[in-house]
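User: Second chain of the day. Same drill as before.
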Amino acid sequence: MQTFFFFGSYSNDSLQDARSNRTEQVIGTIESLNGQIIDIYALLGDTDLVIIANLPGNTEALKASIALSRETGIRFATRPAVSVKRFDALLSEDKEAEFPNFQFPGELRGSDIGDLN
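Assistant: Same format as last time:
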């Protein structure tokens, strides 16, 4: 499972259409995609709420973001998240030992370089 943050911004319409069962609806949408809600927070500022959820992958996160926007009228910006522990491990010298198959987007490995010739 991968962690995703869904940053939501209310529109005037989404505030007028707010319902008391919206939270249960959000949980149901995430669970229907084999996901799990970690937590939901209301925020102050440009972003009005954040939903933190674990989902199987990017496809499910994209489906969730679209479904949540359609169901609630809230505009969502969805971001994958990596724990600080994992991030620190990626920065360390033993990156390969802990995450042998991890590759940053665009990163070339020795075996990939031969394919460019």
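Residues 2-84 form a domain with the Alpha-Beta Plaits fold (CATH 3.30.70.260).

User: Great, on to the next one.
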